[in-house]
Each structure stands twice: as C-alpha cells, then as structure tokens.
Sequence to fold (448 residues):
Amino acid sequence: MKIKVRFPPSPTGNLHVGTTRTMIYNWLFAKQNKGEIVMRLEDTDTERSNKEFEADIMNSLKWLGLDWDGPVYRQSERTKLYRKYLEEFLVNKKAFWCNHSKEELEVENKNQIEAKEPPRHVCSHKQDNLETGVVIRVSVDSNSDRTISFNDRVKGKIEFKESLLGDFAIARNLDSALYHFAVVIDDIDMEISHIIRGDDHISNTPKHILIYEALDKPLPIFAHIPLVLGTDRSKLSKRHGATAVSAYKNDYLPEALFNFLGFLGYTFSKDIISKEEMVAEFELEKVHQSGAVFDIKKLDWINSQYIKKLPPEEFKKLANVPELPDEAVLIVTERLEKLSDIQNFNYLWEKPKYEKDVLQWKEMKPEEIQNSLLQSSFCAGVEIKKLGSKLDEIAKDNFGGDRGAVYWPLRVALSGKKKSPDPIEIIKILGPKETKERINEAKKKLES
RNA sequence: GGCCCUAUCGUCUAAUGGUUAGGACACAAACUUUUCAAGUUUGGAAUCGGAGUUCGAUUCUCCGUAGGGCUGCCA
Fold:
C-alpha cells in the first residue's frame, strides 16, 4: 500500500506547537516509509481564516524543516468537489436539509442535558425533503444498535454507539462544506492512507467513518496522538505561554525544538537525536497513550546542547552578532540556553556599563582596588600564556595570595559583570589596547 | 449531564507477571575555582485507591477516584 499522510493546519492562528508535534510524527512516519505528505490548509471557516496565518504556518514549517510533497491545497478552492458530493448525498437521502434555528437547537440541547440524555440533534425535517434550509446534515439512524468501532494504531480499539451521534452538520449550504465533510472528501480524493492527528479528534472519527461508508470507500488507518499539555495538564493554550512556533525562532534552534517536540510523546534511544535518526527509529505503535506537559526547562537544556555544537560562523549568523570575534564564540556558546541571551555578553564587543561598587571584592578598600587595577594594567601587554602566573604573582605580592583581589576588579573592569568568564579569556578576546583602556576607565570611575 | 481517552519521581519517561522500580531535565550538595558556565561525583524524589486473577502484580481484569478531550451552522 502506498503511504500518504497529510498536514492539515487551519489558518485561524499561528502554527501551534501541539499541531507541530502531530506534524512531526506524520513527517517521521512518511519519511521512514518513503511515503508522501500532502499540505492542505483547512480554511472552510472563511471568517476566521486569513493569509497572514497561512504565511506564518508555512514559514514555521519551513524553518523546522518539515517539508511536504506537491502543491499546497486550500479547502476554500475545492468547493466544487464538495458540492458534487453534497448533491450526491442529498439525492441519495444520505443527507438532508435541516431547518431548525439555533435557538431551537439550544433548547433541545438544554433539555437533553437536564434529562441526562446524550446531547444530539435528531432532526424532524429528515422526511420533509426540503429543497433548502439552514444547514445540511447527515442522516444517522437514532435507533441503530450498531457499534462503530475502529482499531486505532496508538490507542487500540475504540467504540462508539451510532445511535448517540445524532444528525450531524456537514455543510452550511452546497458551496460551504463544514470540517467533517471537507476532511473526509479530501482524504478520499487525495488517497490518504494514514490519518495521524490529535487525540481531540477521536470523537469525530465515528462521524467520519459514516461518511466513508456512505461513499463506499475503504477506511484509512487512524492514529490518534495524545495532546501536548500545559503545566496544569489541560490542552496547551496561550494562557500557558507562547504556543506559536514563530515565538521560538529568536531563542531556539529549529533542530532543538524539533528534538524536544519529538520527545513529547515518544521515547527515542537518546536525548539529543537528529531528524534522520528519529526517522530511522520511529514506530507509530510506540507513540505514547497519555498527554505530555510542555516543559520549557527541558527545551532550554536541549537548546543549550545544540548551541554548544554550533560552528562559529553559524552561531554568529543565528544569534545575529556579526561583531562577535570568532575566538569568543566558544566561551559564549558554553554559557547560553537561548540565542537572545547573547546580549548578556555584549561587553565582548562594546564598552561595559556598570556601577563602581561592583568593582569591590569582599572587604577591599578603594585604595586597594586602585592598586589592584594599576598592577593589572601593567599586565595588559603580557603574553597570554604567562598572564595567569603574572596575575598570581600580583596577588601574592600585594594581597597575601588572595587571587580574588586581583581577578575580581579586573573582571569587572573588563566585563562590568559580577559573573563572567575568566578575565584572561576576556583579555584574549579584547587585546592589550582595549584591555588597558577598560582598566583605566575603571580606575577613573573609582575616583569619581 | 452524555460519550470517549488517560493514569510510574515536580516534568519527560524506562522496565516487566519476580529489578535495591532505571535514565534524562529540574532541584540540592560536593569537587574544581577569582565569580559564572561547563564538567565530574553524590543525594532527595514515583508505580492514584480498592477488590480480583496469581506462588508473586507497577504490569492482567473489574470497580472507584482524579485529570483531560469532545459534546458548534469552529477545526
């Protein structure tokens, strides 16, 4: 059988990390099986869909390296196809026009809940053969004793009673199909073999199965993946933080996000793993059954691992710091979790700003700091290799061997920070001239 | 309310009818050290509850409980 899967985002928002995780599993599965991936924008809700979200989705997918085969389909451009099938459904009495108002349906629903009955709309217009109406519904037998069941590749056997479904809506009119109808028609038309989608679609599946059956088409294989959760274990949404992939672009490497998302629901052989290795290892049946919390701390760690491995040129480009000297890249990447944190190291390419009291090490007196800096400034031109022993000597001769008394003021003079890499590392990057200048500025600052 | 899904450290998870229930992140401590970072070592931390099956259940079954999803003329 030819393997064919789909990316079916709805352009009613930016690309969501949960949707992306589902797409990653589709992608891994397709790549491993030399299958095809269809890109299909589900924009049947014209009110909420827009081109900006479309662009965000495509760009984010591209950024992550999630590619697809063939053209980009839009459901809004396929209304003729849906119309053809809607007419067929109507003619064959598999669907009918319903003329109940929203208010009537609300009352019905309210009464059902109060009576502890299953919520569903069993339409009384079914036999009326209306020419038109408010909405088109599939006719479902409310007295059926049939159990619709399917074998989910990740969840196992799932069953629903047909009688509980009710006559569900599939189109606003002949030219405006709703989700349930458009997906099934498209999945049939595009010969989708595996539908790998979020857990939240499980309860839609029996409806879809009924449409496949009405068209006498074979069922695809269903695989429902658990949702990505927020810290309170509910479906990940904006109140938990950034959900758009594009919100991660400035701080995270695409490989790191991909790696992290892949682990939210699947266990690969090692924590840091490439796409290629993931493709080789992936098995649909091994996708976990329960939802996973999006833990940003783990993402940060994975990201830091990828940053460390970046070549200098690549890092400077991605972090957008062309002025950073190549020699400085290593000491910086070792300390970063997020790309934008590079701004904490701006003293490597521009003069630091700081308050003079930061220069003080423990109980040091101003004269002592001055002396320490003066001594250090004499070392500015010393060969890097010998710099360490030279500074140690100063500590020994002037401060009873307290190296902090030398290193601390020096580091602050160079970086303006309480926390920074070894001053010798910084001197290596700044060079003797700049080093001397910064020490002198520190001395001046101390006097003021 | 109805239907459906799920349940191992704080988080991601491993294991399997028999293990001292393992790892990673996070956290804490130690080492290193002028301060960070990195690294190394160590530590605390979990099988939701109750029945049943069994010589033995974290694992299998059932019942609870909890959480989640769906319940649209959204997708």
The domain at 356-447 of chain A is CATH 1.10.10.350 (Arc Repressor Mutant, subunit A).
